[in-house]
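Students often ask what a 'structure token' actually looks like in practice. Rather than answer in the abstract, let us consider OmpH family outer membrane protein, a protein of 330 residues. Its sequence is given first.
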Amino acid sequence: MKKYFAISLLLLSLGFKANAQSRGIKIGYIDMEYILQNVPDYAEAKNQLEQKAQKWKQDIEAKKVEIAKLKDALKTERALLTKELIDEREEEIKFQEDELLDFQQKKFGPDGDLITQKAVLVKPIQDQVFTAVQDIAEVRKYDFIFDKSSDLTMLFAAKRHDISDQVVRAITRAEKREQLSKKQLKEQEKKEYQEDVEDENPTLAARRKALDEKKAAREKLIADRKAAAEQKKADQEAKRKTLLDEKAAKKTGTVPDSDKTSEEKTTTSDDKKTGEATSEENTKEDKAAARAKLLEDRKKAAEERRKKIIEDREAAKKAKEEKSNSQKTE
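Now compare that with the structural description of the same chain:
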């Protein structure tokens, strides 16, 4: 069956090539298992189903223990029982074993509750995936989209053709839109459009990332400068407050000049000069440190910009080579 399918796919591909030589064939694939694992509603429902299955397994184990006890009791008391009682107990054990087997089949058999509830659980997500795939294929002009986790054998699949994340995002977006206001919905649509554009153009995504990092570095530099200015202002305010306190103390007589000896006055004068010199030195050191940090941040930002430019060039070069190789292959 797979062989016939592959032959049919090849014939379809040749037909598409004949009708779309200028554009070429655009093929993508999804991984249904990956999508299911990343859809919140499915993950929550699956967890509840697993809890049920665990409870069923516990009931089965408890039943097995009960049957084992009946067998052990019969084995111990067999010599003391009449044939009628032995037959009665064996019949009870057989009944319990059949009941256990029926329960196992009902819960875990091919048509059991576990398989049935899994199918019920997956069906709505599969419908959403199908709708999302149809929309993506129509908007982005895909000719074929396959399911990697199906019976179709894929010997190789390049990651750039995987649209599973786009499908997950489309499903998640639909759920978010139901909870947004008109203003939020408009902003969300703008954000989604930007994400879609970047998905189509990896070079643009890399460039946007570089711009975001550059913006973050610039904002950090501004924040550091603002913090340094605020610290300088706080130091000046503290110094001013100290001088005002000293003047007020002199006026109220808390520290009268007559009580000071000549030596104390000299000491006070020296301490004041020393304090002013120390404050001035500290201010110079702070300025030097702030300037050094500013130069270091600028140097780092310039190095990051240079690195990102090189990465963008390499990404663009690689994309160009891949496009050239793809055209040669076609």
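One point worth highlighting: Residues 202-249+289-330 form one domain. Ask yourself how you might have guessed this from the sequence alone, and why that guess would often be unreliable.
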